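note to self: dont lose this again. the chain is below, predicted strucutre after it. 398 aa total, dont forget to put it in the shared folder this time
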Amino acid sequence: MAATTRFPKKTVRDVSVAGRTALVRVDFNVPLHGQRVADDTRIRAALPTIHHLSESGARVVLCSHLGRPKGKRVSGMSCRPTAAALEEMLRRPVAFSPDAVGPRARRTVDALIAGEVAMLENTRFYPEEERNDPVFARALASLADLFVNDGFGAAHRSHASTVGVAAYLPAVAGLLLEREVEALTRLLRPERPFVAIAGGAKVSDKIDVLSHLLPQLDRLLIGGGMANTFLAALGFDMGRSVVERDQLPAAEHLIAEAKERAVELVLPVDVVVGNFYLEQADTRVVQVDQIPADWLAMDIGPLSVERFTDAIADTRTVFWNGPLGVAEWAAFANGTSGVAKAVAASQGFTVVGGGDSIAALKRLGLDDRIGHISTGGGAALEFLEGKVLPGIACLEDR
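---
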């Protein structure tokens, strides 16, 4: 069995919360469809912390960013829809403040009684948030007497609501943040065999993670747009496929390092190509050495799906991040769906991150067969690179 490490920071379980007001940094940066939440995964992930605080007699004040409003009020980026979605999940009212700080926020918080929940407006409506401005951080902190960071997806940001408030309040972790760190730590000390599956468009997004994980890996499977760059580095003519030319040296280095460490590198042997980057493009399945000059590789092919499935079958630890093709278009979604089924069928400990990978699992009804679905995005990747996340470092040690 892999060694486990106790979470090093205090959590909501380690402090008395009855009668206190807890400012909880959540990551409700979710996609919206009009005024409704299109994917509530991140909101549901925060429920254990919210329930724990509420049932323990705390007043719960949630804050989050949503989108990139760049310090201005943008009507389509209000947190109000996330409060409405949470209200449906809790089946009781969630008060909403149209401000994150100031008199209206104070009145919303003061009106709460023990066990009740409120949501503040988007913290990124304020330019001081991303600057980690101490005046803004102090204003946020003044609404509560305890800070709980449960927004793992924003823990790699040194912002006022993730780090700054911890200078003015006792600061502990929420249950989601604890669960994320414990799951990702298992990837750094894995049961073997350990396979990582990397997809998505850009090598530059994941090359540092793959390099850091490589000493622990038995197999590395690469698909999606990333595979184009690796195949190009091996000398294949990729036609008009998207290739990160500036990342060819990094791909060549990783290929050489994998060989040196005896890590099996599994790349596509066939691909689904399209004549245009369009949902309605004409498609063909071709071997990777037969890509037509004017066509684009847009998914891994059926032989590659079989090869990937075989490489996943006997593993004890699996990490998957990123689609294996243009998964939002049905003609190029088979690779991602095939890998999703293989990961869900694994008997090992499985961790999946990235919106498209998670969406594929949910679409297939397989998300409940995954050991841990990470809400972390960039934070998870930075953690796996071995970086210290400021939103965790600022919390009180056990």
